[in-house]
Amino acid sequence: MIEALAAGVLILLALIGLALLAGALLVALKVLLFFVLLPFRLLKWVLLVPLLVLKGVVALLLGLVLLPLVAALVLAGGLAALLVLAVPLIPILVVAFIVWVVVRAAGRPVVAS
Fold first, then answer.
1. What is the per-residue pLDDT across 92-109, written as a single tens digit (0 to 9) for each?
2. Where are the domains of the chain?
3. b vs e for 93-103, b when ≥16 Cβ sit within 10 Å of the residue's Cβ?
């Protein structure tokens, strides 16, 4: 019984050691690949940074050119929305104006000269 338990422990230790060895090999492979591919990563950044700067400059210029156009369109849209909301109020404003004229005319005493 003790021999079976000892054999089980030895097998478990062997599996743990094998897992640690596999993990160490994977870490070593990852480090190796990192250092092998490092020049390509650096080259990518050397080539990519000027393109990113160019992209930023083009975006800035397009923004400066299109900003007044977008602002004018937003103002025109706001004016159109205001008119769309104000046009149905015209009959109410006309009735209010007529009531105001009638009240104003009725409240004024007639002065004889």
1. 999 999 999 998 888 766
2. 2-107
3. eeeeeeeeeee
